[in-house]
Design brief:
- The structure is a single chain.
- It is built from 14 helices and 7 strands.
- By secondary structure, the protein is α/β, with parallel strands linked by helices.
- It has a single domain, classed as Vaccinia Virus protein VP39 (Rossmann fold, 3-Layer(aba) Sandwich).
- α2 packs across α3 and α8 packs parallel to α9.
- It is globular.
- Bound molecules: S-adenosylmethionine.
């Protein structure tokens, strides 16, 4: 499919999102320096050797935003849901430089990482570098798919690695804030079609609520200056908006708080942050597990 024939929202999301690929460098920096997440240090070290570490500006922004414990919490909470589900086929969209794919593929998962083509290629090479350094002969069933998660054809291609008779978990972590509501509609449609075929769930800490921070924050302004993306327009208004949005698109969304993994975080100690401070930082953040509503005839659905 050529760019010209794609729907407008789809085109817009792909071009806008190419402007945010650099954000994955900062996430990798956080994990490597402040957490005990497996393979985080090895990945970042290969990135740095390739000249692909986070920029000073990116590091500064993350430090000022006080977001480091949250980044660790969202990663660990996502892992917890995945483990609990017992599902061993995963599609992680917008996977950036995340170590989860390598970690789980070595535990015999079928793991598909999807990111925009340029990042996907870099990630593949970074993982090859880590495997060489750690004498890992093969990362197993770990696949890198370059593409736009909003685009139907790209999404389907990424899913071709799965055994469709078994359930799949879709993960997105640090993606939806960059995607307009038109783009989200297409993405949720892609996930719904996949889960209708395979069953499973979507796990995401990406449903951010404007009501938690009505005036926005400095990071939103910075992002607008740096990328032209107005994050605030892409956030859900409040919990009601988030839940009804998911419901209208065929999902039941269960809310969880990242405070649930507070005791498992390494970063507060490294940053010398008190429990009270960490709790306050995590309390306005959210994670959701989305499963398909099986009956399309649920009362009231058409009203949403
Ligand atoms: C904030 S980073 C998060 C990366 C990773 N999930 C993590 O937590 O480290 C956002 C990522 O989204 C990717 N991305 C943005 N738009 C995308 C799209 N339409 N399809 C696939 N990936 C996309 C970027 O390339 C980038 O790697």
């Amino acid at each position: 499919m050529t760019t010209e024939t794609k729907p407008a929202a789809d085109r817009e999301s792909a071009t806008l999102n190419e402007r945010v690929t650099w954000t994955n460098r900062g996430c990798a920096w956080v994990r490597s320096l402040f957490t005990d997440i497996p393979f985080a240090q090895e990945i970042y070290s290969v990135m740095v050797d390739r000249g692909e570490g986070a920029s000073t500006e990116n590091i500064d922004g993350l430090t000022k935003a006080g977001i480091i414990p949250y980044f660790e919490a969202r990663y660990k909470l996502t892992n917890r849901f995945l483990e609990k589900s017992g599902v061993t086929q995963v599609l992680e969209v917008a996977s950036g430089m995340s170590p989860r794919g390598l970690d789980l593929a070595l535990q015999d998962y079928t793991y598909v990482e999807m990111d925009l083509p340029s990042e996907s290629l870099i990630k593949k090479q970074v993982i090859e570098g880590v495997c060489r350094r750690k004498n890992i002969a093969s990362p197993g069933k770990l696949f890198f798919e370059g593409g736009n998660a909003i685009d139907k054809d790209d999404f389907l291609r990424a899913c071709s690695h799965f055994d469709k008779t078994k359930p799949v978990v879709v993960i997105c972590e640090g993606f939806l804030r960059y995607v307009s509501f038109d783009g989200k509609d297409l993405f949720f449609g892609n996930v719904r079609d996949l889960l209708s075929e395979t069953d499973g769930m979507m796990v995401t800490p990406d449903i951010e609520l404007l009501s938690d921070n009505p005036n926005g924050d400095a990071s939103h302004e910075r992002m607008k200056e740096q990328t032209g993306i107005d994050i605030r327009k892409n956030l859900f208004k409040d919990m009601h908006h988030a839940l009804s949005y998911c419901y209208a698109r065929g999902f039941e969304a269960k809310h969880h708080s990242p405070t649930g993994v507070m005791q498992n975080l390494a970063s507060p100690k490294k940053l010398n942050i008190s429990n009270e401070e960490v709790y306050a930082k995590l309390a306005t953040r959210h994670a959701f597990v989305l499963t398909l509503i099986k009956s399309k005839a649920l009362p009231g659905r058409e009203l949403l």
